[in-house]
């Protein structure tokens, strides 16, 4: 039996529920992300007209592509309602979409991930690890696997979250604690990982386009945040484990263990598939090492022998795609899921079809970005904002911490990470470049804030599914129950992840290969 609630506790709960209801109401009132970009494009057109008529302009130090030199550049607002601008906008719609950097990179890596996921390889791998997990390490393994599962997009939500509950029950622990731990890893640790996932190229593409507003030659690589996210995986695992065992589980009412649900080991076909996948992955890694490690390796830079700026780094998305595709195919063959090449192509088709909503979103996001850049409003806002922040002395680490918190707050209302970054990147990336921060640093700060509040965002696409999982073990559970359970994770993830960032910042460590903390145009 749970303890009777005091009147103060009732009042507190009432306030929390009213706040949650308010969040849900505001979130539901917002238009679809695709529609939001249409609205933002229209606003950009109107604002560009007003600013152009008012003669708004800014001067900043930047790279002049016409002269090839770093010099003072003056940029004025462009009227998007002028005849030339209208002609430009209507003739570049298709190119805006097809040249949007995130489009090709996401599609490429999803071909490999789609096959690995579609054959059941990712699900079998999760189930196998869960089945052999020792009791002492259950919580940490569930959180860790949740973080790692974001490589395969929604697999963690569908497979691991319910598995977390079953695994906890097998050890006579509360199933909702298992659900919470898994959901915290999958959603709260969304940006952390030991590998490069589908989000990395998407964010890098948007950051690149934003950075090129200031420096046309700047490119943000998909591995730009890899070092930081690699370490973040272990930090989030530790925090998630402690919150589950020290805060969440002790607060749960005793559970009546009547269910006979168990975590079954994978089948014989799945075991054979795992063997095939493991061997193929090992062979692939060995081949890649042969091409990279020697000083004259084929995938090194032919002139300098560098790995950092080399065909390997430029083609990292393709190589990551193969890392998923090859084991996925061999798993399918071993598990008798794939019988011929048509099955492989069918899985690719299915994976790409799952990106239909992403394509619609990207189409309108690309038009907004193109109009915003052409109008010069992004540069004007960024330079003016940077100058204001300098004048009031609000720069450095405190500014970045505030940006993380701002992102975390916005994420509660706009749950689609790609939509938020498409809106925020054109403003904050060039603004922070003016203040000496690299685009990679701005991007990693955004990803911290964006991940931490996923688990308490009612509008997050898989939140409703998680509520259904909770209701399986507690019939009275609702949105408020799930959010109140997950809130400690969100708070401690935000505190812990921000603390890691602060330490990283003070040590001056690179965020990824060739990804410094600071930017200096010259």
UniProtKB/TrEMBL annotation:
<feature type="transmembrane region" description="Helical">
    <location>
        <begin position="276"/>
        <end position="293"/>
    </location>
</feature>
<feature type="transmembrane region" description="Helical">
    <location>
        <begin position="313"/>
        <end position="334"/>
    </location>
</feature>
<feature type="transmembrane region" description="Helical">
    <location>
        <begin position="226"/>
        <end position="244"/>
    </location>
</feature>
<feature type="transmembrane region" description="Helical">
    <location>
        <begin position="482"/>
        <end position="507"/>
    </location>
</feature>
<feature type="transmembrane region" description="Helical">
    <location>
        <begin position="136"/>
        <end position="169"/>
    </location>
</feature>
<feature type="transmembrane region" description="Helical">
    <location>
        <begin position="395"/>
        <end position="414"/>
    </location>
</feature>
<feature type="transmembrane region" description="Helical">
    <location>
        <begin position="176"/>
        <end position="196"/>
    </location>
</feature>
<dbReference type="GO" id="GO:1902604">
    <property type="term" value="P:p-aminobenzoyl-glutamate transmembrane transport"/>
</dbReference>
<feature type="transmembrane region" description="Helical">
    <location>
        <begin position="34"/>
        <end position="52"/>
    </location>
</feature>
<feature type="transmembrane region" description="Helical">
    <location>
        <begin position="444"/>
        <end position="470"/>
    </location>
</feature>
<dbReference type="GO" id="GO:0015558">
    <property type="term" value="F:secondary active p-aminobenzoyl-glutamate transmembrane transporter activity"/>
</dbReference>
<feature type="transmembrane region" description="Helical">
    <location>
        <begin position="355"/>
        <end position="375"/>
    </location>
</feature>
<feature type="transmembrane region" description="Helical">
    <location>
        <begin position="421"/>
        <end position="438"/>
    </location>
</feature>
<feature type="transmembrane region" description="Helical">
    <location>
        <begin position="97"/>
        <end position="116"/>
    </location>
</feature>
<dbReference type="InterPro" id="IPR004697">
    <property type="entry name" value="AbgT"/>
</dbReference>
<keyword id="KW-1133">Transmembrane helix</keyword>
<protein>
    <submittedName>
        <fullName>Aminobenzoyl-glutamate transport protein</fullName>
    </submittedName>
</protein>
<keyword id="KW-0812">Transmembrane</keyword>
<dbReference type="Pfam" id="PF03806">
    <property type="entry name" value="ABG_transport"/>
</dbReference>
<keyword id="KW-0472">Membrane</keyword>
């Amino acid at each position: 039996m749970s303890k009777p609630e005091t009147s103060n506790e009732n009042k507190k709960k009432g306030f929390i529920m009213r706040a949650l209801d308010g969040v849900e109401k505001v979130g539901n009132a917002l238009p679809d992300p695709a529609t939001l970009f249409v609205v933002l494009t229209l606003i950009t057109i109107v604002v560009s007209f007003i600013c152009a008529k008012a003669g708004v302009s800014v001067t900043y130090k930047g790279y002049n592509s016409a002269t090839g030199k770093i010099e003072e550049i003056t940029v004025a607002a462009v009227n998007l309602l002028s005849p030339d601008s209208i002609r430009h906008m209507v003739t570049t719609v298709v190119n805006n979409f097809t040249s949007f950097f995130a489009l090709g990179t996401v599609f490429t890596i999803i071909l490999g991930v789609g096959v690995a996921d579609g054959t059941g390889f990712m699900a079998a791998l999760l189930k196998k690890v869960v089945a052999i997990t020792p009791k002492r390490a259950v919580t940490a393994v569930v959180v860790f696997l949740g973080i790692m599962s974001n490589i395969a997009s929604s697999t963690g939500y569908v497979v691991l979250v319910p598995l977390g509950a079953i695994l906890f029950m097998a050890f006579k622990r509360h199933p909702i604690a298992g659900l919470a731990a898994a959901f915290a890893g999958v959603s709260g640790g969304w940006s952390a990982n030991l590998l490069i996932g589908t989000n990395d190229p998407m964010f890098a593409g948007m950051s690149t386009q934003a950075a090129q507003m200031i420096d046309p030659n700047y490119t943000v690589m998909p591995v730009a945040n890899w070092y930081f996210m690699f370490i973040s995986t272990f930090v989030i695992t530790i925090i998630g484990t402690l919150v589950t065992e020290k805060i969440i589980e002790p607060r749960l009412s005793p559970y009546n263990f009547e269910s006979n649900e168990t975590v079954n080991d994978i089948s014989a076909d799945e075991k054979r598939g795992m063997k095939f996948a493991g061997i193929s992955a090992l062979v692939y890694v060995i081949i890649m090492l042969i091409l990279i490690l020697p000083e004259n390796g084929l995938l090194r830079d032919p002139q300098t022998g560098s790995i950092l700026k080399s065909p390997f780094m430029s083609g990292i998305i393709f190589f990551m795609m193969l890392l998923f595709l090859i084991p996925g195919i061999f798993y399918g063959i071993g598990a008798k899921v794939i019988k011929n090449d048509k099955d492989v192509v069918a899985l690719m088709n299915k994976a790409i079809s799952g990106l239909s909503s992403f394509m619609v979103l990207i189409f309108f996001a690309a038009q907004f970005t193109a109009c915003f850049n052409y109008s010069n409003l992004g540069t004007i806002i960024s330079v003016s904002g940077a100058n204001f922040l300098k004048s009031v002395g609000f720069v450095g680490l405190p500014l970045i911490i505030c940006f993380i918190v701002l992102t975390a707050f916005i994420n509660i209302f706009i749950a689609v990470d790609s939509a938020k970054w498409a809106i925020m990147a054109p403003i904050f990336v060039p603004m922070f470049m003016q203040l000496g921060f690299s685009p990679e640093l701005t991007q990693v700060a955004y990803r911290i804030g964006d991940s931490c509040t996923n688990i308490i965002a009612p509008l997050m696409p898989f939140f409703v599914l998680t509520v259904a999982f909770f209701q399986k073990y507690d019939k009275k559970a609702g949105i408020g129950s799930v959010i109140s359970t997950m809130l400690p994770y969100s708070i401690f993830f935000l505190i812990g992840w921000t603390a890691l960032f602060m330490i990283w910042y003070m040590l001056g460590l690179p965020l990824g290969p060739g990804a410094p903390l600071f930017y200096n145009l010259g």
